[in-house]
Design brief:
Layout (H helix, E strand, L loop, with lengths): L10 H21 L1 H13 L6 H6 L1 H10 L9 H10 L7 H4 L4 H9 L13 H21 L1 H19 L3 H10 L1 H10 L11 H14 L11 H21 L2 H9 L1
Protein name: Flagellar protein
Pfam family, one: DUF1217
Length: 258
């Protein structure tokens, strides 16, 4: 049976329930037959995948590897994935670095095939990838119930990744603008309309920095602070709920009737 997340409420109240119940729900997910079958196999065999070809030739290993980075949709694109992995990240012109979607670069960097060699046998490697995979599966299951909740769940790990790979505040904001999930959370929480994403990048940057400064932050990673993150998510749920209400079919009919 496929794992199903429990999300009984929407908005910030639902978010509070989800954060309180995440540990219990994650325990259920880990023991669900499909997830357990894949993670047990990954734990037992990933160290043997010493080349990119080894990894892509084992569908179960590849499913966990890609799933951990939100790239499960590429499960059948084995030749492409192998090329990304073999190219590594050390050269600026590598395929992973040229792709707009930076999840591929993160995947290539983590596995190391095209850089300094396979990292699959290093202590803690398997458990780190498995934890990331399980978190991604949980986010997807939550998203099937409530899309806003999935974006909120993604915020903390996405900010952690941002802190690892991006330096100054401006570069971080540009990374937010380039990331649809992060952009949606910040753009909505800051009260910007959807059309804001279409204006000049420098104006977007100035807008994000001004709204962040009003909350006492300079860079996106400042919102890793629990208090700031809670304020941001309260605004996000409040404004995303208002947007949904404003575009609901019932309200549209009422407006037509008026």
């Amino acid at each position: 049976m496929t794992f199903q997340a429990i999300v009984p409420l929407s908005g910030h109240a639902g978010w509070r329930y989800l954060t309180r119940s995440t540990e219990v729900q994650m325990a259920r997910l880990r023991e669900s037959p499909e997830v357990k079958r894949l993670t047990d196999h990954f734990r037992a065999h990933v160290a043997k995948a010493q080349t990119a070809a080894d990894l892509v030739s084992d569908r179960r290993l590849l499913e966990v590897a890609l799933g951990a980075f939100g790239l499960k949709a590429d499960l059948n694109a084995r030749a492409f994935v192998q090329k990304v992995l073999e190219g590594g990240t050390l050269r600026p012109d590598s395929l992973a670095n040229r792709l707009a979607d930076k999840r591929y670069a993160a995947l290539a960097l983590e596995f190391g095939y095209g850089d300094l060699g396979a990292r699959t046998g290093l202590p803690g490697f398997a458990e780190r990838i498995i934890a990331r995979y399980e978190r991604q599966v949980f986010q997807e299951a939550v998203g099937e119930r409530d899309g806003a909740m999935r974006l909120a769940l993604n915020l903390a790990p996405a900010l952690a990744d941002l802190a690892e790979r991006t330096g100054n505040a401006n570069a971080q904001w540009y990374s937010v603008i380039a990331s649809a999930p992060l952009r949606e959370v910040f753009q909505t929480a800051f009260g910007f309309p959807a059309s804001f994403a279409t204006i000049d990048l420098d104006r977007q940057l100035a807008g994000y920095k001004a709204r962040a400064a009003a909350m006492g932050a300079k860079a996106p990673t400042d919102f890793a602070d629990p208090a700031l993150q809670d304020r941001l998510l309260r605004l996000y749920f409040l404004r995303s709920g208002a947007q949904q209400a404003a575009t609901s079919p019932v309200l549209a009919l009422l407006r037509q009737g008026g």
